[in-house]
């Protein structure tokens, strides 16, 4: 301790009197372990505690939602690209733990590049160019820094030793993030601050300059990192526009040996006090390319004191090495499909500079899917993750339709290649292997508790009824152990209906493992009787965690799509109760949501949520192929509210929804719809209810 005699006496005196210790003594009593500097703020955790899950965020089982194979090309080693839904910190910790069979020994230590564009903790609104509402990233101060820092700590551990990370950030927090990155990766592994364009504002009457740029911080895990020089077109220094190559004198300041060069078969010495710009081998190549000439109008005195007429000149190249000023590229692409989107040409430059074809690269703030799309086009293996359902479906749509998108480069041609095989995953789901291995009675007790089914002893037309839910409708537990080669399919439902269809009211629940249910929708209807599917497995069990979990929140408006939140664990998935009305005419398709109830109480109050109050968003596939949901349109709950003249009336969306008796989806032109329509209704906790409509038959299924 670096304390003077006076300071020691002062401390003893204060302790004896029970007085507070002045803040000035903090670093003398507890000197920092950092060599130079670090950020100090409330709530900052030690790296060791983050990796040991002392923050209450744990690795979680990964569960495949769907594998997209078909005729898709696959990697020789069997790798499938990954789109993951869930909290990215949980996902990163699962990779770091390296136990889940889906990713064991396939990802940790093998990621060559990570790129992230986290929602900035700013409060700034980002507005598109088509009048759509912007979003606000609201997390601020130390909370934002620690949110990001924990993810960066784990991200470093899963990078390959020769891997790199690129982090895009804006001016509000760039300085804090830079210090945090120095702390995690080491300041010696800082490679560049790359300056890129920001969305442009030309505000007047300010007391500061308009902000026109963002930063990308480029760090490597070690000094032995992969870096690949890339080139761009030569640009005019002042206008930023493409510049035509010009002839330049082939000499540079200073004397270097050897001085002479063989130019067009003649030995020439450079002008006095200068040297020839190029080595002989480079010069020979330029001569072959017709990029060297002798300008006879220029006379000079060479280093030997001779007067020479005719100065060698070289023609500039059309391409130049890329430096750290990337303002020749767009900063963001704004469209109606997603609030902000990184341009593919920006991501192309990042990916080409830090990875090779076949390398595994990652983005754990997936957003609109630009990174995954660019990685696919550049023939990289990729992983992407996001906590938002809109992002999850947006990335899927982008990859499913990638052949229709623009190819990289400036030729405006379509990509015209189908994406390689990929898989969608859910994080935070319990694999239930132990549950499936329970005795049949114990399994039945488990699912009865899970889905709040009261066991009953009843038989209808020879069919055993296992229980009754709190809404009064019957439930069947499908005995998967007796039908290992069968599934809950249309044939099973029709056979069941022929026996009990007229005796069970208008609905019955069927509990079955998700892998044994052949329906993507959540119910199947025959003659006004709905057969609802309660699918197992669902989200991770609360008791698996040592701290109280909290549910993921889905936004009810576009402006909140990038709100930041840590997850402790998932809740059990419980489908919302949804009731809709379909009206079709020769030209239009109209759908009204009459009822939307979430089977959860409000966390803060414990009160049951009112009708429609928990609706977050509605996703629509207008031409559902019966297998893959391919989103065509989406609406946040805010978009579906009656229009108000005063924008302030919409600030509390849930309150507005409570006062709404029903919600009409925007009318769809029948000519734009296929035979089947699939709609996914999502509540604020991320629970989904899927409904399929048969448009041409004026019915639903």
From TrEMBL:
Cellular component per GO, a single term: cytoplasm
Entry's EC annotation: 2.1.1.72
Pfam families the record matches: N6_N4_Mtase
Catalytic activity, as annotated: a 2'-deoxyadenosine in DNA + S-adenosyl-L-methionine = an N(6)-methyl-2'-deoxyadenosine in DNA + S-adenosyl-L-homocysteine + H(+)
Domain DNA methylase N-4/N-6: start-end pairs: 111-389
Extent of the signal sequence: none
Annotated GO biological process: methylation
Protein family per UniProt: Belongs to the N(4)/N(6)-methyltransferase family.
Protein name per its UniProtKB record: site-specific DNA-methyltransferase (adenine-specific)
Source organism of this protein record: Marinilabilia salmonicolor
Lineage: Bacteria, Pseudomonadati, Bacteroidota, Bacteroidia, Marinilabiliales
């Amino acid at each position: 301790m670096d304390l003077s005699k006076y300071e020691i006496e002062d401390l003893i005196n204060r302790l004896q009197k029970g007085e507070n210790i002045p803040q000035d003594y903090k670093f003398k009593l507890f000197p920092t372990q950092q060599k130079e500097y670090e950020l100090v703020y409330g709530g900052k955790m030690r790296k060791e505690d983050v990796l040991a899950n002392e923050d209450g965020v744990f690795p979680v089982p990964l569960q495949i939602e769907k594998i997209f194979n078909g005729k898709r090309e696959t990697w020789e080693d069997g790798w499938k690209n990954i789109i993951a839904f869930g909290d990215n910190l949980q996902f990163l910790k699962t990779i770091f733990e390296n136990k889940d069979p889906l990713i064991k020994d396939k990802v940790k230590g093998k990621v060559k590049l990570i790129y992230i564009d986290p929602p900035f903790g700013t409060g700034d609104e980002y507005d598109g160019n088509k009048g759509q509402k912007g979003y606000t990233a609201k997390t601020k101060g130390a909370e934002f820094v620690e949110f990001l820092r924990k993810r960066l700590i784990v991200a470093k551990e899963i990078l390959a030793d020769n891997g790199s990370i690129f982090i895009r950030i804006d001016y509000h927090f760039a300085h804090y993030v830079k210090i945090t990155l120095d702390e995690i990766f080491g300041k010696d592994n800082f490679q560049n601050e790359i300056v890129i364009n920001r969305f442009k504002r030309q505000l007047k009457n300010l007391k500061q300059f308009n902000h026109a740029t963002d930063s990308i911080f480029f760090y490597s895990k070690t000094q032995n990192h992969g870096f690949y020089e890339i080139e761009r077109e030569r640009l005019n220094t002042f206008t930023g526009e493409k510049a035509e190559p010009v002839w330049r004198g082939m000499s540079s300041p200073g004397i270097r040996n050897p001085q002479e060069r063989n130019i067009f078969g003649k030995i020439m010495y450079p002008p006095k006090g200068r040297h020839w710009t190029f080595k002989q081998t480079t010069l020979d190549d330029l001569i072959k390319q017709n990029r060297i000439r002798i300008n006879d109008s220029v006379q000079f005195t060479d280093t030997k004191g001779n007067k020479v007429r005719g100065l060698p000149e070289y023609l500039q190249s059309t391409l130049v090495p890329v430096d750290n000023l990337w303002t020749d590229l767009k900063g963001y692409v704004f469209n109606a499909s997603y609030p902000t989107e990184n341009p593919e040409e920006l991501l192309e430059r990042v990916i080409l500079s830090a990875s090779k074809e076949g390398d595994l690269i990652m983005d754990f703030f997936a957003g609109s899917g630009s990174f995954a799309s660019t990685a696919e086009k550049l023939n990289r293996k990729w992983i992407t993750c996001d906590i938002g359902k809109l992002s999850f479906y947006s990335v899927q749509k982008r990859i499913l339709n990638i052949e229709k998108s623009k190819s990289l480069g400036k030729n405006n041609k379509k990509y015209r290649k189908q994406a390689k095989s990929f898989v969608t995953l859910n994080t935070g789901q319990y694999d239930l292997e132990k549950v499936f291995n329970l005795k049949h009675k114990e399994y039945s007790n488990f699912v009865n508790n899970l889905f709040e089914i009261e066991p009953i002893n009843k038989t209808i037309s020879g069919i055993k009824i296992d229980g009754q839910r709190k809404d009064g409708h019957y439930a069947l537990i499908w005995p998967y152990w007796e039908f290992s080669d069968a599934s809950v399919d249309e044939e099973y439902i029709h056979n069941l209906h022929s026996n009990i269809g007229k005796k069970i009211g208008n609905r019955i629940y069927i509990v079955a493992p998700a892998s044994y249910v052949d329906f993507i929708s959540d119910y199947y209807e025959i003659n006004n009787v709905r057969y609802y599917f309660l699918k197992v497995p669902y989200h991770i069990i609360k008791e698996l965690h040592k701290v109280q979990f909290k549910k993921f929140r889905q936004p009810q408006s576009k402006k909140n799509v990038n709100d930041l939140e840590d997850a402790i664990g998932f809740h059990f998935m419980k489908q919302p109760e949804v009731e809709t009305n379909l009206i079709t005419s020769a030209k239009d398709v109209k759908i009204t949501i009459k009822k939307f109830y979430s089977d959860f109480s409000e966390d803060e109050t414990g009160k049951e949520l009112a009708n429609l109050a928990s609706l977050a968003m509605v996703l629509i596939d207008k031409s559902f192929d019966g297998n893959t949901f391919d989103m065509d349109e989406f609406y946040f709950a805010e978009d579906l509210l009656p229009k108000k003249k005063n924008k302030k009336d919409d600030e509390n969306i849930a309150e507005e929804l409570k006062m709404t008796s029903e919600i009409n989806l925007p009318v769809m032109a029948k000519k734009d719809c296929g035979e089947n329509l699939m709609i996914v209704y999502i509540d604020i906790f991320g629970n989904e209810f899927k409904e399929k409509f048969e448009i041409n038959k004026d019915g639903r299924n």
